[in-house]
Amino acid sequence: MPTDDSTASAPHDDRRFARLRWRCRRGMLENDLILTRFLDARGEAMTEDEVAALDRLLDLSDNELWDLLSGRADPADASVRPLVASLRAA
Predict the structure, then answer these.
(1) Which of 3, 38, 78, 84 has a 20 to 30 Å separation from 56 between CA atoms?
(2) Averaged pLDDT of the chain
(3) Exposed/middle/buried for 84, CB within 10 Å: 0-12, 13-18, 19+?
């Protein structure tokens, strides 16, 4: 029986994944490397919640994103904190 559990792995959608990977290409090399490494390792297994959180993070400027990924700042949005922690560990 199918469930509507947003924490379950999302079915892999090639176009959505390609768009997400494209958005992870950043002007700041450090961000680009962290995001690319994370997607290579976990991209296809990301949950819907993680994809939504990553979309929110990708709306930030490169400097704001780097501050979060490098640990110089903590996310104000509690819903992205678990993903930021995963990205920092990547």
Answers:
(1) 3
(2) 86
(3) buried
